[in-house]
Design brief:
The chain is of the alpha/beta class. The chain folds into 2 domains: 111 residues, Resolvase, N-terminal catalytic domain (Rossmann fold); 40 residues. It is 56% helix and 12% strand. The chain has 9 helices and 5 strands. The protein has a 5-stranded mixed beta sheet with strand order 2-1-3-4-5, with helices on both faces. Helix 7 crosses helix 9. The longest helix is centred in the middle third of the chain and has 34 residues. The chain starts with a strand and ends with a helix.
């Protein structure tokens, strides 16, 4: 018997509301099994996506709310869709009303994925031009080093016996930044 399987993803843990909204949308679309995670799309280790891809069988429908929740870029999206097609699994993208069970949706998906990639490249190009102009005018300062500003607090909390997980929660910086603060003190 075929299943309707959903996959939801947000980039960070702060986006819980976005993840909950995706899950609700997938449930409304009839997903009987939903895999979800909070990892960056650029992260190659997306264990729940891998579990979902391994779990689906021929005849199943794999559902996501938007293409960017599934893939990091055009090549990744098309690769995942091809991998699922090879397993005889149909991909449905709710926001686009696409279903790879038909050739027209496949064409539209490929075109839209290409347009999305083009838009991102254009946006990055404009961003680089803006940064170069701001640097030339002496206005560009870069991102504020928030984690480094909290290094003393991190070391103080460690000295008080606080765990790394609790320090992360208390300061709002990443685990990597906490460990960096520890190593810089040594």
């Amino acid at each position: 018997m075929s299943a309707v399987v959903g996959y939801a993803r947000t980039s960070t843990a702060d986006q819980q509301a976005g993840l909950d909204a995706q899950i609700a949308e997938l449930q409304a679309a009839g997903c009987s099994r939903i895999f979800s995670e909070q990892v960056s799309g650029a992260d190659t280790a997306r264990p729940e996506l891998q579990a979902a891809l391994d779990w689906v069988r021929a005849g199943d429908v794999f559902v996501v709310t938007k293409p960017d929740r599934l893939a990091r870029n055009v090549m990744d999206l098309l690769g995942i869709v091809e991998r699922l097609k090879a397993k005889e699994v149909t991909v449905r993208i709710l926001a686009m009303h696409l279903d790879t069970g038909n050739p027209t949706s496949n064409l539209i998906l490929t075109i839209l994925a290409g347009v999305g990639s083009w838009e991102r490249e254009i946006m990055l190009e404009r961003q680089r031009a803006g940064i170069a102009k701001a640097k030339a005018e002496g206005k560009y300062k870069g991102r504020a080093p928030t984690a480094r500003l909290k290094a003393d607090e991190v070391r103080r909390l460690k000295a008080e016996g606080m765990s790394v997980a609790d320090i992360v929660k208390a300061t709002g910086i990443s685990r990597a930044s906490v460990y960096r603060a520890f190593s810089e003190a040594a």
